[in-house]
Every structure is written in C-alpha cells, then in structure tokens.
Design brief:
The structure is a homodimer of 332-residue chains.
Chain A (H helix, E strand, L loop, with lengths): L2 E5 L3 H12 L3 E5 L3 H10 L15 E3 L2 H5 L4 E4 L6 H11 L6 E4 L12 H8 L2 H4 L2 E5 L4 H4 L5 E6 L3 H11 L4 E6 L2 H23 L4 H21 L10 H12 L4 H10 L4 H8 L4 H15 L5 H11 L4 H9 L7
Parallel strand pairs in A: 1-2, 1-4, 2-3, 4-5, 5-6, 7-8
Antiparallel strand pairs in A: 6-7
Chain lengths: 332, 332
Amino acid sequence: MKKITLLGAGCWGVTLGALLFKKGYSINFWEYDEKKAEELIKKRTLKRLPHLKLDKEIKISTDLEELLRESEILIFAVPSQVFRETAKKALIHLGEKIELIISATKGLERKTCSRMSEILKKEFPENLKNKIAALSGPSHAEEVSQEFPTAVVIASENEEVLTQAQKIFFSPFLRVYTQKDIIGVEFAGAAKNVYAIASGISDGLNLGDNSKAALLTRSLAEMQRLGEKIGAKKSTFLGLAGVGDLVVTCYSRHSRNRQFGELIAKGKEKEKALQEIGMVVEGFYTVESLCQLAEEKNVELPIAKEIYQILFLKKDCRLSMRDLLSREMRAE
Amino acid sequence: MKKITLLGAGCWGVTLGALLFKKGYSINFWEYDEKKAEELIKKRTLKRLPHLKLDKEIKISTDLEELLRESEILIFAVPSQVFRETAKKALIHLGEKIELIISATKGLERKTCSRMSEILKKEFPENLKNKIAALSGPSHAEEVSQEFPTAVVIASENEEVLTQAQKIFFSPFLRVYTQKDIIGVEFAGAAKNVYAIASGISDGLNLGDNSKAALLTRSLAEMQRLGEKIGAKKSTFLGLAGVGDLVVTCYSRHSRNRQFGELIAKGKEKEKALQEIGMVVEGFYTVESLCQLAEEKNVELPIAKEIYQILFLKKDCRLSMRDLLSREMRAE
C-alpha cells in the first residue's frame, strides 16, 4: 500500500493518520515540535483524543528528509500560519514518487490572505500543481477518531485527483463527497471559524437560540457574498463545506473557535482565552485576512468587522452585538 | 390604535399578542377550546411561558362573532390541520374594517398539501386576497416572550401589505425583514419541522455533531429542491425563513419537533411521544404532505421519506439512519 506522510500531528492530523493506517496505508508523521513528537512517540495518543491509539508501525519524527524520500501522498495538517514555511521545507525533500498533495488545514494566511492550496500552487513546481486537493466539511476530530458517522468534502480542479483522494479517505463511517470548487470549499472552511467566534460570543452573552440562528444566517450570507467575489460558487455555501461546517463549528461543544468566543464574551483577555484552549484557534488569525479581503473586494462584512473590533480594538462584545442586531429594518 | 384579533391562544399566539399589546394595539384572543380559554382568562399565562402575563385589557373568548366585528387585523396562530375550518368560521363574521390577514402558522395541510396562505386565498373573497401575509423565521416563543433579540421574516406578494405588517411587529428586540417570496417562506417554515424530527432522531441515537450537521445540510438541499419545483426562490432557503429557522428548530432545546424525534429514537411509541410533548408537533403532520408533494413533483427526498417510514411504517430508526448515511459515494 502507498506511503503517506502527514505534516502536523495535532488532533486532526493524528485522526486522519490513524484512519488511513487502519485502511492499510503506510503512515508517517512529521511534527515540528520536538517535545510534542517525543510525547506522541511515547504515549501514542493525544490528551484530547483519549480513545485513539497510534499503532507502533506508525513512524513519528521531526526529520522531514527521512520521511519524505519515499512518500507518495502528502497531507498537510499544520496550522495555517506556518503552512507556507512547512510547504517550503517539504519541497526540498520531496521525492520523485509524490502523486498527491492534500491540504487538511482550514485558514487564510495573514497579510497575503492566501488559501492553503494557493500557497502550494505558489511554492511548488509546475509538475506538482495539478496534484493538489483540499479536505473540508463538518468533521470534528473528537468524533471521527471514534468512528462516528461523518461526511466530508474533497475538492480539486482535477478530476483524477478527486477520484484518487476520495478513495483514499473513504471508509464505512466516513463518506467523501467530491467538489470541483476548491476556492469555495477552502474559503468557507476558513471563514466559518471567524463566524464560530461570533456564535460563541452570542452563547457567552446568553442571547438565546433565536438570535444565534439569525447570526448564523447572516454569517452564511457574508461568507457567500465575499466568496463569490473571489471566484467561489454560490452553491458551495449550501453544501457540507459551507453551511454544514458552519453549523457544526457554531454549535458543537468540540469547537475551539466557538469556545474562544464564549470565553471572550465572559470577559477573558484574548491571550488568556487562547492559552486556556491550548490549541490553535484558526478564526483568531483568519478574521484579519477576512476583513482585509473584504476591503479589497469592496464587500461589507458587518459581523466579521465586529469580531475584528472586539479582538483587536477592544470593542465591548455587548455593544457589538447590539450594533449588529439593531441595523435598520429592510428586505432580506 | 388598531384592533387585532389573534386566532389561537397557544404559545406563539399568546407571545405575539402580548408583544402587540405592549406596542399599544387593542388585542383579542379567540380560542376554540373552552377549557383552555377559561384557564387563560383566569391565569393570564401559559405553563410553558411562565415569564409572560397577559394584561387584563386583553380579551379572551370562544365567541368569534363578538371578537371579529370590529377587527382590523387578523392573525392566525392555530395548528395547520385546523387552519381551513378556522378560516371558514372567521370569514362568516369578518367585518368591513379588515385590512390585514396574517398567518403565523407553519405547516402544510394534509391531503391538499396547501400552504396556509393558499388556504386563505382559496377560502376568502376577492377583495381580501391581496391583504394576506405570512410570518416566519427562527422565533421560539419561549425567547420572544422574554424579549430575547430575534429576527423574523414577513412575506407577501403585496408591497403595501409588507410595509404595513413590518411596522406592526417591529420592536426593539424583534427585527422584521420583508420577503416577496411567500411560497418559499411558507414552504420552508413547514418543511423544517420534518427535518427537525430527523435531527432529533440523530440526537436520540447519539450519532454526534458531525453527522447531525451533515443531516442538516442534506435537509436544506431537500427543502430547496422541492421548494423550487413548487415556485419558491432558491435564495429564500439561504435566509432567515430557510436555513435560520431550520437551524433553530434542529438545535434548540425549545423545539418540540426535535424533541419528538429524540423520544422516537429512544423507543417511545409515537402516540406516547406526542402526548408527552403535550403540544402540536407540526412535523408529524407535515411529513405526509411533504412526501406526497415530492411524488407529485417527481423530486427525491431521502430524509423525509425515511422519517415517514419511521413514523408510519414502523421502520427502525437505526436502520433508517444507516440507510441515509451509506448512500453511494458521489459528487455534492
């Protein structure tokens, strides 16, 4: 069976690795952080995924060269803000056998506002550009690792890549749908984390189920509005990578972005809230890019803008929510 | 101020009546059930809405003639299956002053599959047909009655009616958006109750957040597919009356349809489950119409069909969910 290297041994990466190992693939993990790698080698599990055990045949290392020489499939599961440097490092050691490169990271790079597959296309040579796919959809690792039924989306402009990637991930409890709109899939997957922070703030302020649903509806409209301006398809936002992922991230107790918003609403300083969650809160980094993109494309994003003001300009949460909810009466 | 008669003194009717009274309208309630009317006259509140008190100036009666003679605005908040007979009764006594007729009921009539405004158009004379509107959106009475911020939709084909109805309901905590697509608004408001039963079943079987989000995504697609075939606009399903109301009904602890599904999944007989909830579970009646409409219009609704089979053909919930989740791999 094919050799797969996973870059990043966080919850999602480890979950995917365990799933693919069970399907018979040869699995390697690369982890940047030596301490984390050592701990994973020793314990073979993560604190947040107590049900999961990585088999001893799965290799975990901080040495990219050794891992990548023979790899046929590469899966990125690193935080979005270190995606580009990881891609650059990986490229140096990438062997001849590589046939598929998949991003399982959801976010937008700061400053450039790039999607993850855009970074790959920018950094990787011509012969690799048509081997790229993105994995998205409502898929909390806590549940996938316990084999709860889950449906995900694999996106690529290349039909062959789609078919190949679909077969790799497919399993009895994981349904994999294909999508040609990689722009929409990646953009929605990044943006929803920002709106999950808004949902968390609504939870923290006890605004109730009605206004949380209204907020989610408006969030979806915002995502779609800006998404279309950058080339995404409208219909993608109605699918698993759009509304599906948005709903799970806004409503699940597993969602760190939602949880972060809740802590903020309860008066916690953002640094302390990030620390308390102890894992990367992608929406915290994405909100800046989202607002920047909106300005470039001349699109209004009232909710994202309020989240930015709360997190970076110390605007009061309550005031933000009041401002959002009291915008003038009008047609939908 | 104008005289409003509310037909039906259930949770939603009573909530709307209290809100409109506070805005200065003269409010009358008509309640079919004498015992319920007497209790409401005495207690001035409903068990499920302990925070709410109806002012003594609000009249509650079972005598339609007396109430309707001077009414200028009529609001229907009766269950969908008694909507037509209520409309027929009301028509007999309707005075000359009537200028607006609003349906706040969400459902489809059995056998005819009619939306509530369709029933009104069928039963009412020509001069009243252009005074009709429908109220919808994510608005659990338990929260609106406590003045939690809420956003609703008022729908009508008539611009003047829209503006008038928007002004009637608007209040500092209730934002009212207008929508010209009354077909989409009413159809979505009815269909979502069926899909909330599906969500409840997923909850009852502990299928997890990932599959619940996938189920909601597919539910929205089903609603939209059939909705478009009966003349609804696609975009309506992305709005408050579509995804907004669907989300709140699938996720809120206040939702009786969700709760009903949960009880069914836990093995309760449907009659006992209906009894335990003690209020009308609209989705239970709507599922039949939904499946009938789907057959007439030649649209596939896998989720609604499974709910029908569970409720009326004794199909096992677990088997239904497995069948839904194991449909063949394909593009979104």
